Amino acid sequence: MKRCRTEIAVIGAGPAGLCAALEAQKLGAKVTLIDENAMPGGQLFKQIHKFFGSKEHMAGIRGYEIGKQLLLDLEKSDASVMLNSVAYGLFANNTIGVIQKDEHVAIQAEKIILAAGGKENYMSFPGSTLPGVMGAGAAQTMINVNRVLPGKNIVMLGSGNVGLIVAYQLMQAGANVKAIVEAAPNIGGYGVHAGKIRRAGVPILTAHTITEVYGEGQVEGVIIAALDEKWQPVPGSERAIAADTVCLAVGLNPMTELAWMAGCEFTFLPLLGGHVPLHDTNMNTTIPDVYVAGDITGVEEASSAMEEGKLAGIAAAAALGYMDAEEAEKCKNEVRSRMAALRTGLFGEKRQTAKTEQMQQMEKYQRRAGD
Amino acid sequence: MEELRVLHHPVLGDASEIKQVIIYFQGQPIPAIEGEPIAAALLAAGIRSFRKTVHLHEPRGVFCAIGRCTDCMMIVNGQPNVRTCVTPVEDGMKLEPQDGYGRGQEAGGEKE
């Protein structure tokens, strides 16, 4: 087994991990960035839509363009990058177990930033395991990264921003979106996205659900039904839609395995995707040398993941003495205020409330630990 | 068969120059693009069932496309449990649908 040392190990090279690594190495820290994929960037390269927010959040720029820029910055940086490398566990003395291709590597780090990201939720119904039923993110990867349509006629389940954006991008790639099915009485995502879909003639069926997906060995059609005010299928309202693909856009959950393994304290916040590690305003968890950033702290958007990454990167480097406390606080406050700006508005406010709750629980934990 | 490759795109533009290779699914040659995930090449060829489950032998295909769910595992060059959504295509690759854990199928890739 190969052994090596680093000052700051960042696990996950998506938007959060990239920003964390870049900030920390800019301040002079020795950084090792670890990712299981062959290329850094995480899910940024499948995001071909323009980002929201203000100018300093790189709003108006498409996700993959941001990804390209971050990769250029990474190339110019001194950070060492381990690709095709799975960080499978955290052990005593800040040691990370990594399988790089077929080689076992133990990396000892002074600070560890977990930026493992999130994964899509599943939903179970008759036929939901048939080939042709997939995550909306999976379809998005296929069309925008691999340039292959997963099918021609698509039913999207879920009208949150992922459902709306991926449905639109499936149309851009040449597929027919037959309908977006939404169980809630209202559309979940931004009106501006929903408007584009409706103008293209695609129905968004609120208060509807998929009761069954049928087909011989693969998806051939979908049965949908209307839901009453108690979310129960209305008898007689069933109808069939011919389709070869069903995309599930029913939320994401944080990939927290490593944080559990590190012994971090957690809380359950459904709005953020489930169990999330407690962290303070430095992105520091209840384990002193372990920081978190991005979707692992609660599912949000790439824009907030990037800000959290920057914050964790600055905080970890400053904790190692690469920046004096006062200067570091100034830098961190700039990031914090940009982050707060991302958590405003109809959707952002709810996330802000949940994030506040998460940090309040951290304070409570710290008070208890201090007693 | 209908074209499933996205050759033109309003945001991404036309497909850039690519190197075509050939892979074999159950012995049948399939055109693929060097470096793309195996799963993408199969979907482009209209193949959607990648394996059968252990107990009920139900078909499974691509679900997450980012290497998490393992629904897309196949026997690749005789090796079972390969996640095809994150394994790049190589010229001449031999692919077999995986049955259960793929026991007894290990040598499949070597058989001619």
| Secondary-structure element order of chain A, N to C | EHEHEEEEEEHEHEHEEEEEEHEEEHHH
* Average pLDDT taken over every residue of chain A: 96
Instruction: Compute the number of structural domains of chain A.
Output: 2
Shape of chain B: globular
CATH superfamily grouping of the largest domain in chain A: FAD/NAD(P)-binding domain
Rg of chain A, alpha carbons? 22 Å
According to DSSP, the number of beta strands of chain A is: 19
What CATH architecture label of the largest domain in chain A applies? 3-Layer(bba) Sandwich
Provide the helix percentage of chain B.
Answer: under 10%
CATH superfamily of the domain at 20-96 in chain B: 2Fe-2S iron-sulphur cluster binding domain, sarcosine oxidase, alpha subunit, N-terminal domain
Biggest interface, residues from each chain: A-B, 34 and 33 residues
Strand content of chain B: 25-35%
Structural class from helices and strands of chain B?
Answer: mainly beta
Question: How would you describe what is shown here?
Answer:
The complex is a heterodimer of chains A (371) and B (112). By secondary structure, chain A is α/β, with parallel strands linked by helices. Chain A has helices spanning 15-26, 63-76, 136-144, 161-172, 191-199, 257-262, 302-319, 325-342, 345-370, and strands at 2-11, 31-34, 80-82, 85-91, 95-100, 103-114, 118-120, 133-135, 153-157, 176-181, 204-205, 208-214, 221-226, 239-242, 245-248, 252-254, 266-269, 274-277, 290-292. Chain A contains nine helices and 19 strands. In chain A, helix 1 runs parallel beside helix 2, helix 3 (136-144) runs parallel beside helix 4 and helix 7 packs antiparallel against helix 8 (325-342). The radius of gyration of chain B is 14 Å and the shape is globular.
